[in-house]
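Q: Got a minute? One more chain.
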Amino acid sequence: MNRRQFLKTGAAAGAGFWIAGRQVGFGQEKSPNAKLNIAMIASGGRGGANLKSVGTENIVALCDVNEKNVESAAKLHPNAKKYSDFRKVLDDAKDYDAVVVSTCEHTHAFATLPALQLGKHVYCEKPLTHGVWEARVVTEASKKAKVATQMGTQAHANDTWRRVVELVQSGSIGKVTECHVWVSRTWGWQSAEDALQYNDIASTQERPQEEQPVPAHLNWDLWIGPAPMRPYHSVYFPGPKWYRWWDFGSGTMSDLGSHMNDIPFWALKLDAPKTIEGFGPPPHPEIAPASFRAVYEYGPRGDMPACTLTWYQGQEKPPHLKDGRVPAEWKDGVLFVGDKGMVVGNHAKHALLPEDKFKDFKRPEQTIPKSIGHHAEWINAAKTDLKTTCPFSYSGPLTEANHLASIAYRLGKKLEWDPVSLKCKNAPEADRLLHREYRKGWELKA
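A: Always. Here it is, folded:
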């Protein structure tokens, strides 16, 4: 049974067959010292970085739409099969136990979902998917698959952030009712003056009218995948320039939001927001913004009170950076505001505020152990208990929330979110952004 026959006959029945097959081939009963057989779906860029981190395992497949990336990776793993189309990798499911997905955002779900349905352990780059519906489908499939999953949210393995989470969850700053997250990156649509200031001219370029020759080493049709076809141009590829365009990515919010919003999601035990509102310049129909702000409202969670989470991007800055409560040296950061104080942090340092109040403070015991490494966690989980720190059951809802902020901004409306029906109760026009249409020949079988 090849992949297309498998999907055609129905994911539910097929998943049971293939999951059973995985447990015979590589299950928890196998020694942790044994090596995973891993298929790399994307082998350059982030794929190349991920390959370095999992390269001590048995790499059996290398895939990339860019032939140069495959050939470069094959120098280190000469026995691996070489592919350009990840769908053919999925056809050869008997060859591997696990998959690392590092394609561009708009094809994440198309590689990840079938791999889960085939019973494979999956590591997927952030953001988990290109949209809300895709995130929910992948999340539900991961629960059924009973495999080790991990989204590439390396901040979750960072010791500084783990100490911040402990401070919040231990009650050191009291009941937290607001959180502020800000990033300085300005990749996205902006004025020509701002683009010059931030050295990002690509952010001012409209869709090119001219067509450039497709590089000989690139399969442009496969790169486009489920997105609407458009002529090749260097404004999209190579490099991360594609992520500015709504057809291929979701801008800085879903990219850096996967790292930075992960911290309040973790510390405050967040899930689905009640409302989301976005603020910024008039939205561009094709390109994500360089700067914008989003406000989430969350209800109570157990003994944690209702709270707001505000995201600031680019030129948008939290008011705390202006009134002296947080030193301006925090270029990017997360601030938790409790009724007994505040804690601010970034990937390198953190502090309790006001400093004079906490000068004699005794820190809580460390309850979150040091990470063995974000990729190592996933590999170990695949060989043992299937438990990781950013499984799709966690990173799926995080991805949904990040995408909802972009949708609220694009619609210019405060959205009332119903996570059960996957609908914005007051905005039926959001449906087209929650679940996009796919190019003919591409579909997801949930």
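A: Residues 392-411 form the longest helix (20 residues).
Q: Perfect, thanks.
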